[in-house]
Input
Amino acid sequence: MPDRSGGESSDPEQDRDWIGRVRAGLLAWYDLGHRDLPWRRSGDPYAVLVSEVMLVQTTVEAVVPYFERFLARFPSVEALAEAPEEEVVKAWEGLGYYRRARQLWAAARAIRAEHGGVVPSEPEALRALPGVGPYIAGAVASIAFDRPAPILEANSERVLGRLVACEEPAGSSAFRTRLWGVADRLVRGPAPGRLNQALMELGATVCVPRAPRCLGCPVAHMCRARSAGRQESIPVRRPRAEPLPVREQAALIERQGRHLLLRRGPKGLWAGFWEFPTIWIEGSDPAKRRASVQPEAPESAFRRLTGLDLGLGPILGSFAFGVTRYRVELAVVRAEDRGGPAGPSPAHAEIGWFAPADFDGLAMGSAQRKVARLASPPGVF
Ligand code: SF4
Output
């Protein structure tokens, strides 16, 4: 219970009055207006599921155009379950974290096989679907079916962490356990779907990571971090680890206007994606390109990948990109094809020669898409 003498109890979430006031403040604020997001319009559970899978590790701004295109192409569970996996991954291209696309496709197949094509409403049944963890299950159950299921994602985590002034380090199990508890208490009241959306909306628009706009916050009077002047230092961040450096090299190998590409195997980074022959040069090896601990000359590494004898030319260009906890520098060289039958390394599923006009139809990661631009005459791609 609150300390009426002027101080504050240590755990406000144990105070039913505090919970009730936070809930009421959030719902009233949300009902006054919120962003018009396409997945909120229909309330279709399938659309909510697709949007929530896309939103994992990705911003709303990035997701909106992908969501609209995806729903136009796969408008129902049945349409998604029917589509070849490759087509689904292609529609996801550019969003990153491609495992999500494969899992969403697998979830659609499971919904068709086990639930007659109808997205289940209970969090436990949702959690049994491929790729659906507690957050996605809670979001779909609450938003699409108004079930009192808690959620915790980046935005609501920040809001709740500040509301209760949680001093545990962000990401620690103590932090997450406490905040799941707060989320659970809050959602057990009227309008759980709107309540969860209000929490996410507040985190996205008002209780932002830096310089939260507390003057416009509907729950400012209940916020422990604000009353302690700690709103900018909660959640408590651990220093971020430096990304691990990686150096790789890709080769443009051309025969009669067509370029050699390989399709990666079914597991690991960029599983099933097409790429120009790419070798590990130095540093970490997140894509598992290194064949042995012994040093290997680039010509020999490319021969192992493609079966071809090659003469490597100068570097045409290079660029850097981040993937998970790695920072990759990718250099692109032109390679002279000196013959030999092309054949994929055991790590790859397929090999083929493609004209630049074909590149657009192949599923590729965004770094390899940049390599494709270097391989294409202006205006083709
Ligand atoms: Fe966030 Fe400030 Fe509102 Fe607290 S008062 S929830 S820190 S915006």
The two ends are 65 Å apart (CA to CA).
